Amino acid sequence: MPAPLTSAGALIKDSWQLFVKTWDTTVRYSAWLIIPAVLTLADLAIPGNQESLIVLSAVVQIAVAIAVAIWVSIVLYQVTLALDAGSKVTEKTTADWKAFVLPMVLIGALQGLATLGALLLFVLPGIYVGVRLGFSQLTLFSKGLKGRAALAESWTLTKNRFWAVFWRQIAAGFVFAVLIMIVTTAAVLLVGLVAGGSKLGVLVDSKSLSPVAGGILGLVQSIIQAAFIPLIVIFQVKLYRALDRTRA
């Protein structure tokens, strides 16, 4: 039988401590996720009668959002694994990020297809498969496994430990969601006051805001999300390392 996993509380605490300690490093990478929101705000400068420009801008935004998301995912995994191991982050830490693009996309596609296939049967099988394969991409960055080998490693890693993993992810997700919600609500209220909308109106009726204020509001929300994404990645790495240490 596998050894007992680190408790949910300990994992959350350790993740928070590493997040605070290394935030100035990780945020340099996660901050790039703000770019799509900036591009959306820039759309306001396009005249409403320029439909071709609007369509072109939408295509560019989607392409940029996908590219940025892939790059940030890769470098955050690389940086977080290094920080969790106590290593110093340098340019060499992420120098080979290009080599992980196709393998990570392939693993993500296989993982998504497997989860979707299970979801077609019922919700619970989909959740089960999603949790069991949830560490596939991390095995790519920590052990160099690709494709089906990465999925198989994640499946083996979580064998007989579905509920232990699921509970820890639910607990952390709840705590982090509450934290992000509190910060986001405070920021949204502040933006609403500055923009001239009422506090309640900002939260429940975005139509009370001007397009510019709405764009700024979206940017603020994007900034907050980018600021906390490293915390989520750190927890996932902590949980992965705990699973690997206590595997049967």
TrEMBL record:
<keyword id="KW-0472">Membrane</keyword>
<feature type="transmembrane region" description="Helical">
    <location>
        <begin position="53"/>
        <end position="79"/>
    </location>
</feature>
<feature type="transmembrane region" description="Helical">
    <location>
        <begin position="215"/>
        <end position="237"/>
    </location>
</feature>
<feature type="transmembrane region" description="Helical">
    <location>
        <begin position="99"/>
        <end position="124"/>
    </location>
</feature>
<keyword id="KW-0812">Transmembrane</keyword>
<feature type="transmembrane region" description="Helical">
    <location>
        <begin position="29"/>
        <end position="46"/>
    </location>
</feature>
<feature type="transmembrane region" description="Helical">
    <location>
        <begin position="170"/>
        <end position="195"/>
    </location>
</feature>
<protein>
    <recommendedName>
        <fullName>Glycerophosphoryl diester phosphodiesterase membrane domain-containing protein</fullName>
    </recommendedName>
</protein>
<keyword id="KW-1133">Transmembrane helix</keyword>
